[in-house]
Amino acid sequence: MSDQATLETELDTYRERVSKPLIRLFRTYGLGEGRWLALGLVASALAYGSILVTPLVLGTTIDAVFTGEGTYALPLVPGAWLPTEPTAQFWLSATVIGVALAGGALLQWVRGVAMNFFAHGVMYTIRTDAYEKMQRLDMTFFDNKETGEVMSILNNDISNLEVFFDNALGDSVRIGVIVVGITAALLYTNWQLALLTLGAVPLLVAFTWWFVRVIEPRYAAVRSTIGDLNTRIENGLSGIELVKTASTEEYENGRVRGVSRSVFDAQMDVLKLSYFYRPGMELITGAALLATFVVGGLWVFSGPSLFFSGELTTGDFVVFMLLTQRLTGPMAQLSSIVDWYENAKASAKRICGLLDVPVGIRDAPNAVPLEDVAGRLVYDDVRFGYEDGVPVLDGVDFDVEPGETIALVGATGAGKSTVAKLLLRLYDVDDGTIRVDGHDVRDVRVSDLREAIGYVSQDTFLFDGTVAENIRYGHFDASDDEVWEAADAAEAHEFIRELTEGYQTRVGERGVKLSGGQRQRIALARAILQDPAIILLDEATASVDTETEYLIQRSLEELTTERTTVAIAHRLSTIKDADTILALKDGRIVERGTHEELLATDGLYADLWGVQTGEIDDLPEAFVDTITHGPTDGER
């Protein structure tokens, strides 16, 4: 199974288990910002309720003041409070309309501020929680990672939620207030004509229900293809050096074009349906407006027809036309709300899926602190595989006394780096036990364990920041003097001083502005600054020249004095003075002893040494390449 398929299976498994994702996220994150939501919804209801004032006031003013067809009356206002003189009635109407317009504008501002505080507050909390959860996920998750997929969740999907919580909720209230208010006003004005006008509502509801059913899987496809596109772009940018040196720009462009086409096709599937839905909604509401205009207009100047009865005044007809017109826009905008809802629902499932991925490497319920570490290590019949049925370590046993140095050697893929990663609890053993000072590493606090171990990996990583920030990483309160001393001990001080801005020089993303050897020395300085009880060196000098390697080895001798050290090496000259050397083959320890003892056995270690020193030159080329070159990206 490919890495991509493995990741998709893992995330999809938890994603498909999610029920009512938007409700779940609202309960978890929205209730904490409920005061802003309540203020926004109340302001929204009042703001959009105020738009009903103008048509109603205009209708009664036309009938009472201009045509004399009716009595001056305002809804919810006792008649005794209203003036009887036409001029006073006119100015009262103008005042009420002005106040409604001004109040509506102020309420819209309150609504906008409150809803944005709510939406962005929810978005902030979800994003930080999702990122914190990602930080806690096991290395098995990242072994199969698609960085673009995770980035899509942390950025695009959470932004979709922000749009939904800000716009969709507010607009849903607006449409609800307008529909209910206009329905009540139309029924109050003339219930017979209102039934004709509102006859479109069931059609609109049925049309919307159909649209939601059809559009939902298409939005899920859009979110998935965008994740694939982000992954492809991220991979291309991360590997830009390889792309250029291999002259594969056109190949990468073709891969991005292919994924981009998938995004285009998925988005067009959504848009084609959306652009069918929106005109359909406008057609239905427009037909209701036209029917109201025709029937109401004939009623005004020629009396009721069909099953209608009674009188329809000019003012009432104006009210119907104004209110029906104002009903058309919100009902047609249901399509946008459905779009936001379906987009947010698909995004919420992806977010919840990420939040639901279980974390295996965590503190035990009664985890004990690991303090005053002496550094005694025990590997007791350790067995481990990254995939079921594919063992990487098979019965590894060894002890290391405090202050001793043990070295692991072997061909690429023998399992050397895996031994180191299990000590750090980047993974947990499948069987057997690893102990530090007599404590099973699974029983102590993970943070204590990792703080006790200084790890220098073969794949040196630097953050995009200054040299000083990268050395200080993990020990952020270290003084400048302490940083300089650590760099000096790692033979890095001199080259750092020669950089453009010294310790304040920015190293670029992943440290691309520095050479491999410079990056490795900065990583070593970081470990020295940590001052750990246990040193874990995974090819710590793999990327440096011979002269620099000699200088670093001299620093390592001082660093490892009286510290337990586990050193993994392909360059055997760097570990020949170790107290014990373990030779691994196919996940098993096949030889152990000192340098001299292993040479005397004339086994695997002796062959490795002979190849590197030139004493053996007749081994198969593939074997020579395996044991003489540094580890590949797939080394475990």
Strand content: 5-15%
Estimate the global geometry from the Cα principal axes. elongated
The number of helical elements comes to 23
CATH topology of the largest domain: ABC transporter transmembrane region fold
Rg from Cα? 36 Å
Question: How would you summarize the topology of this molecule?
Answer:
Elements: H1 3-16, H2 21-30, H3 34-49, H4 53-66, H5 86-136, H6 139-143, H7 147-189, H8 191-197, H9 200-238, H10 240-245, H11 249-302, H12 314-332, H13 334-356, E1 377-384, E2 393-400, E3 405-410, H14 416-423, E4 431-436, E5 439-440, H15 446-451, E6 453-456, H16 467-472, H17 480-489, H18 493-497, H19 516-530, E7 534-538, H20 546-560, E8 564-568, E9 580-585, E10 588-593, H21 595-601, H22 604-613, H23 621-628
Parallel strand pairs: 3-8, 3-9, 6-7, 7-8
Antiparallel strand pairs: 1-2, 1-4, 4-5, 9-10
Q: How is this structure best described in words?
A:
- With 636 residues, this protein is of the alpha/beta class.
- The protein has three domains: 3-356, ABC transporter transmembrane region fold (Up-down Bundle), CATH 1.20.1560.10; 384-452 and 536-545 and 562-636, Rossmann fold (3-Layer(aba) Sandwich); 461-531, P-loop containing nucleotide triphosphate hydrolases (Rossmann fold).
- Helix content is 61%, strand content 9%.
- It has 23 helices and ten strands.
- It has helices spanning 3-16, 21-30, 34-49, 53-66, 86-136, 139-143, 147-189, 191-197, 200-238, 240-245, 249-302, 314-332, 334-356, 416-423, 446-451, 467-472, 480-489, 493-497, 516-530, 546-560, 595-601, 604-613, 621-628, and strands spanning 377-384, 393-400, 405-410, 431-436, 439-440, 453-456, 534-538, 564-568, 580-585, 588-593.
- The strands form two sheets. The chain has a six-stranded mixed sheet, sandwiched between helices.
- Helix 7 packs antiparallel against helix 9 (200-238), helix 7 packs antiparallel against helix 12 and helix 9 (200-238) packs antiparallel against helix 11 (249-302).
- The longest helix is centred in the middle third of the chain and has 54 residues, at 249-302.
- It is elongated.
